[in-house]
Amino acid sequence: MAVDSSLSSPLGPPACEKDAKALQFIEQMTRNADAVQRTVLAEILTRNASTEYLRRYFLAGATDPNTFKDKLPVITYEDLQPEIQRIASGDRSPILSSHPISEFLTSSGTSAGERKLMPTIKEELDRRQLLYSLLMPVMNLYVPGLDKGKGLYFLFVKSETRTPGGLLARPVLTSYYKSEHFKTRPYDPYMVYTSPNEAILCPDSFQSMYTQMLCGLLERHQVLRLGAVFASGLLRAIRFLQLNWSDLANDIRTGKLSTKITDPSLRDCIEKILKPDEESADFISEECSKENWEGIVTRIWPKTKYLDVIVTGAMAQYIPTLDYYSGGLPLACTMYASSECYFGLNLNPMCKPSEVSYTIMPNMAYFEFLPHEPNSGNDSAPKLVDLVDVEVGKEYELVITTYAGLYRYRVGDILRVTGFHNAAPQFHFVRRKNVVLSIDSDKTDEAELQKAVENASKLLKEVKTSVVEYTSYADTTTIPGHYVIYWELMVKETEGKWPSKETMEQCCLAMEESLNSVYRQGRVADNSIGALEIRVVKSGTFEELMDYAISRGASINQYKVPRCVNFTPIMELLDSRVVSAHFSPALPRWTPARRR
């Protein structure tokens, strides 16, 4: 199909006219980033001028950036909790937004271990859909022919609750998958999935994964790309295939769906698709029964061109394992988003994971950047910088103002500026601020880890033993990954005794009980996190750790035990001193309880 030449893009020749318009939109937004940002701020402040929150700061109708910054403070979630609690309890007055809050999007936990509730409005779905619509036009510049096949994407809904005031509270992707935007999306040859909606929307994670994998196997010669939201999710799918290939192959051989699938609408949907195919079943059985699973992705799905997963930030730890199973297929990171806001996209999605940079789309929200200078020695609060004024090479914490009623809100992401596309900056995601451990969508910070260790170590008092020191790491060599905590113990010489295996296992469980609800849901409902492990090390191990750090140039006066380690020599030192290892013997308590 010929593409209108007036719609050509500096990014490259578009695959079709629809793509050309999307690429042209990206150019328009990024060329005029400053003007777009001023318009976005004016729109937000004008429409929400009568809200309780903005009236509190006496803006008096002003919509310019300078007045806005002079009057409104930079805030965190804790600052906003009273207002959010009122909305959750049923107060429908315009507290944060003049548009009704349609639902809450749940994010990773607060310091108290509860999920954050992010207010949103209906039109935000349009804004998210707009960003989604830009992803494939960019990808098509790098990977031709994606309209000639399908994508095997493992997408899942998670549990949702209602607040006392009746508003839904659920993860942002669950909200999107359950929306009409997703369920009744128009046909697009570049966006065809092997998984039917019924499989994606099934609330039972086993049945959802089983049927999505089954559909992917049935159409294995049509699959051109595999994906999940996070790298950990795709590895979980591969592990699922390792454990269930025999049943899946049997379904394909007989044309009859496993009795493990009990959801009526899902059974009805899959039974219409499933037909006996002995040849495919034999091939899948032959490949999956082999001991060596290296390159299994391209063996089962031979036309796969790339994996579409997030491998930045904490997910980078999964890259070697993905490379092993995929035979080194390209890893595409396409977009940057959170529960609070969708931010931007990767204009070079086939780059190396270490080189991923996201271009912020200035129409999504009003963006400010707090210089991140932890070692500057400057006690004065740094001045926030506008989107177009950030400097290449510097790191910033992202601060957003959204249409849904977040004003100068600190997201907690640390970003490094790598360059610009037109006038819009491009950022490398460095890390989440204060996060120590992460396996999937869980985020455990140092304070929470400390509290969990303290709670668990209370069980050692009976045997007159205490935890002298500890550190941790996220072990992703297992699927699913799990937290490993190293403990050095001290037993009171006269009356103390070494804790029993049962006591140590209960310590593991006590730690899990102390972690936030996102972690516990990953353990109980999503099966995305494995049992927590405590490895007890010999007495004196942490002194050796300090000696090693000092030998590498650390100051003995300023040395602090790292609460998380990922440097191979340190982990090897710790593992060489392990005297016993213990796993949590049961699942921690977790229920999708009604919010108070």
Automatic annotation (TrEMBL):
Residues in GH3 middle domain copies: 358-432
Residue ranges annotated for the GH3 C-terminal domain, each copy included: 448-567
An annotated GO cellular component: cytoplasm
Domain of life assignment: Eukaryota
GO molecular-function term, one example from the UniProt record: acid-amino acid ligase activity
Protein keywords: Ligase
Similarity annotation: Belongs to the IAA-amido conjugating enzyme family.
Name of the protein this chain belongs to: Probable indole-3-acetic acid-amido synthetase GH3.1
Organism: Cucurbita moschata
